[in-house]
Amino acid sequence: MRSASQGRARRAITITADPQSKTYGDADPRFTYAIGGAGLANNGATGRVDTQAGVFTGGLVRASGEDAGSYAIGQGSLAANANYTVTTFSGNQLAVL
């Protein structure tokens, strides 16, 4: 797939939400994720190294609820910039203990 704005192929990546837990009554932890597929670009010739902060906007979300149990973590508004295509998102669970 080519980026219309740059005329070059987009890098295919996958995102997997990390499992999280918290104690009942505590604030939610920061929802994190791992990047797979082709991964983020690291162009040694130009010295450019893409980072999560530079590539992604938005964030993961979780299903509502505060009682003890498991809540799905979803993609929410997390999106990659025009140089990447997210081919697969795999959610995970937030455990409220």
Short description:
This protein has 97 residues and is mostly beta strands. It is built from 1 helix and 11 strands; from the N terminus they run βββββαββββββ.
Task: Tell me what the structure shows.
The protein is mainly β. The chain has 1 helix and 11 strands. It has one helix spanning 52-55; strands at residues 11-17, 20-22, 33-37, 42-43, 48-49, 56-57, 61-62, 69-74, 79-80, 84-90, 92-96. The strands form 4 sheets. Strands 2-11-8-7 form a 4-stranded mixed beta sheet, with no helix packed on it. Strands 3-1-10 form a 3-stranded mixed beta sheet, with no helix packed on it. A hairpin with a 6-residue loop joins strand 7 and strand 8. The termini are far apart.
Structural class: mainly beta
Principal-axis shape equals elongated
User: Whole-number average pLDDT?
Assistant: 90
Rg, Å, rounded: 16 Å
H and E order: EEEEEHEEEEEE
Strand order of the largest sheet: 2-11-8-7
Alpha plus pi helix count: 1
Question: How would you sum up the major sheet?
Answer: 4 strands, mixed
Q: How many beta-strand elements? A: 11
Question: What is the distance, rounded to the nearest whole angstrom, between the alpha carbons of the first and last residues?
Answer: 43 Å
- Which residues form runs of ≥5 with pLDDT under 50? none
What multimeric state do the chains show? single chain
Strand content: 35-45%
Helix amount, in percent?
Answer: under 10%
